[in-house]
User: Fold these one by one.
Assistant:
Number 1:
Amino acid sequence: MEPLIAGLTALMDPNLLVLLFAATLGGVIIGALPGLNATTGAALLLPFTITMEPIPAIAILTTIYCAATFAGAITAILINTPGTSASATTCLDGFPLAQRGEAGRALGMATISSTVGGIISVICLMLAAPLMARMAYNFAPPEYFALTVFGISMLATIGDGTPLKNIIAGAFGVFLATVGKDLLTTVERFTFGFNELSEGIGFVPVMIGIFGISELLVQAERLSVERRQVFMKAIKLPGREDYARVWKTVLRSSGIGTFIGILPAEGATVASMIGYNEARRWSKKPEEFGKGSIEGIAGSEAANNSATGGAMVPTLALGIPGSPTAAVILAGLMVHGLQPGPTMFTEQATFAYAIFWSMLLVNVMFIFVGLFGAKIFARVTFVPVQILWPIVFTFSIVGAYALDQSMLDVYIAIGSGVIGYFMRRFGYSVVPLAIGLILGGMLEKRLGQSLIMLDDQWWLMFARPLTLLFFVLTILALFGPFFWRRLFKQRDPMVSTGE
Amino acid sequence: MTRFAVPTGIIAFCGLAFWLSTQFDKVPPILLRGMQPADFPQMVLILIIVLSVCVALFDRPIEHGRIPATVWVSLALFATFALAAQVDLFLGLGIFACALAWTWGERRPWALGTVAFVSPALIFFLFDQVFNIRFPRGLLTNLWYG
């Protein structure tokens, strides 16, 4: 109870509250801007937080995460362009509603569902993260190694690429993490005589490159895309009838989103898809879905926002990112010298609870931002890309330089951006690369420690029940979807004939 | 063509990295605890090679359109920025931002001025004054640093 109150007290600094409100506005703008999303926004703002104290720094990043995830719905509803991929399913019903002159009702429902989903997930985070951390308290290096392998195996199902390509991208990230001094032997690897590389490739320039600069090149392909805005008179809160219709959907999707978020590497996009599908499956009027169903908006938005809280559970409790943006936040924790994991809830409990409270607060803040500012923020979408992206590039480069004040980081950011663009073009998602880079160092360290502990008899890892469980889960994560698909194809002739 | 070209490129890169990893210093066996420094990167590289072979053989190829000229121009501007940044980081940023906006179709002088002068200047002063970041000396930054 004491850390809970201490965390709240730490957050009650008026300067910090103003900063968080500004971050909420910033997050909503980032979520509404074309091509920018929560992950890119967090990566671009990471350098700004470096000179701050850990609580405001990480609170800003989590605020950006929550606010930008919510803001994707604004553009999804008003211009049929999801601000973030997590709001793609919101387009399906939000835009048809907006075209019927009910944009205000759709935005109102998106705001309320997002807030409820977000608050439920943060409460789950407050309860589940310390429990999960306590469970992990007795983990030895082999358990941690197996857990990290499991976290990396979840990369197969995220991102835009196929599972094989996602794992290659993740493994490439792990490979990049081997650059620099070997932690156990201090032998230099792949440094090519650059002293700056001795400490390894920094997370920040790579993240800025693969999320920010590569997006600039993607936007260069889409210069001719036109955006059409639906006229909106005012936000109209959903009526009592709407609430009566959607409350079960909101609760169900919040549960789904939180659970999906807790799974390592899965994020808001997967949550919103499942939340939307389940809303349709349980609906009394499934025929309305895709044509302007208020339940569709509630199902998608409650799920994607609740995934933000869920994703923070493994991030803080185990040091395994629950989503791409959580990976950036994890990088932020590491840059500040904080060690996520079981000790976070004993040695840095005030910090952990301050982050929980900040997430709760931002979910309340964006009720006001969403209800009163949506009309204004929707206009942000019309900032010409010709002006926006040169400024984003300037921010990216200065941000990449700022961390270590090294020009090498600037070139790493540009190189990562170019690599990221070609990866995306050839179907290799950049998200696994980022997560692989973050987890790579941990993976190698824990493997090395395990081998020392087991006296080089690696097969003894399989004799430890929890380690074995994580390896089995890894195999299920890698091959499960493949077998499920085959099983469904055999059982469902409609699927097997492709009808 | 990319079905085989991309995995081949990845395999070639991994082959080169694998060879480089064989040049790492080795820890004498008597002092060794755990793995040699090259072991872990080599394991990862082998995994990437195996998976790339699988991609080439089993993955469904994706249809790619041609890379638009604007992307090539943007890439060329990256190179220009890298060269100009040798003279001054903010000079490079100004030139890049202005040229990028121009090549993407922006013609309004105020917009070009904003991206070329106003935003780099604001970002410079934000980082210099608020975050106390010291930028590398150059043609323009010397005007401020003296």
Number 2:
Amino acid sequence: MNHSSKKRMVVQKVAFAGMSLVASLTVVFIILIVVYIFSMGAGAISFEFIFSAPYDGMRSGGILPAIIGTFYLTVGTAVLAVPLGLGAAIYLSEYAPDNQVTRIIRIAITNLSGIPSVVYGLFGLGLFVLFLRLGTSILAASMTLAIMTLPVIISTAEEALRAVPQSFRVVSISLGGTRLQTIRKIVLPEAMPGILTGVILGLERAAGETAPIMFTGAAFFLPQLPTSLTDATMALPYHLFVIATQVPGMPIQIQFGTALVLLVFVLGMNLIASIIRSRARAKRQW
Amino acid sequence: MDKIVIEDFSIEYSDGTESLRHINLHIPANQLTVLFGPAGGGKSTLLRSINRLNDLADVKSTKGQILFDGINILDKKVDVINLRRKVGMVFARPVVLPFSIRRNLTYGFELAGVRDAVLIEESVERSLVQSALWDEVKDRLDEPAISLSGGQQQRLCLARSLIQQPEVILLDEPTSGLDPISTLKVENSLQDLKQDYTIVLVPHSVQQAARTADTAAFFLQGELIEVGIGAELFTNPTESRTQRYIEGRYG
């Protein structure tokens, strides 16, 4: 082995070690965050904390209204964003010709996903809360979150649809299928795991956002649960923001307990997405 | 009796690839017609024009006529779905759908809304017998089609194209990925199928063309150079370009 090839080997090894270190760092960060939040907040978790409303200026009691509120907002976002996002993705993947209009739609989607969430919040305040007179409500907040989530759902769903081999479509058409039949019977079922993963990832982001809901639907404090779509609601991320910054003398354990519940909520959705993905991968026939 | 008559047919794709120019070809009923020649000659394009599968591609223009039982199928008013039910197609790579063996076969019925269970069951068996696959799969029809070997998959694709009893079968290099034994099985099936169907085959080799052709048409760079009775064309071609191709001098 001559000198220069030995040197190449060393460079190779150093580069490999460096890159694997950087890659492992992401694992370290996620573990650090989870362990830290867990150790600080686990003591707050109790039956009462999960299943009762806060009292004493939120310094005591539980966070049930915030948990329920986040659940409502997530479901509301899903109901609004999934049909729209899926429709758009199907159009873009299966029907859209490659022309100027399609390109503009794609650019719009990319840009939507780059807009800061607080801007969505102000937009929702202007359009849904004030102009459409929905008030600060679950409906207005869900709409705002839905618009924010749309680009994620559209792009992941489109990617999942495009991943279905073109040959399946050709065969289906050659057997006398219409485009719609082909989409319904082959393309959508095959893409469904990928679509679901995208939907969950999008909703997960919506569930954890504070800025889009603080002007459009989230309440500082509500003693009772919301009863209609036009009610405002408490929500976990906003509640966390409030108790961490706006309430003097707030026990730190309750803050971290709330953070822990939110983290479990979001990571739980992530886990479901991973399970769907790995199951589908094992079953996939292409 | 000609099943399909192609008259002065030209087609051009938007990206300029694989065009066909002024094709005139008669495809006789109940015969095996072979379209052969080097890659890029337009054979597949012609096949995909017969069942209008080219509608999926970015076609710039088509001219001329393709008469199917006397009706010009390039006419915008033609019911394309109905046409495709009458024209089965098998592709070069076996494309089994991500279903069971049975559903791969019955998928065409599903699309057509046919629910007659007895008819469907009989058709599954008939099509599998016709494609020489029945004995190998009759006990495992509900297994995933992907579990079949490549040769079996391609025969399944042939069975799938036969199940709705089309009038014409188009085969685009159906044996290109198969071993010699599977290839022989497919070729033998085709010989039997001629009695009931009109077959148009793009073979994967000159040898296969010579073995199978009743009528042979030689395509070169988008033009139809020569058509003839198979046995004559391969022993005594009139065009030197055909002769040199058959002899393996180019292509």
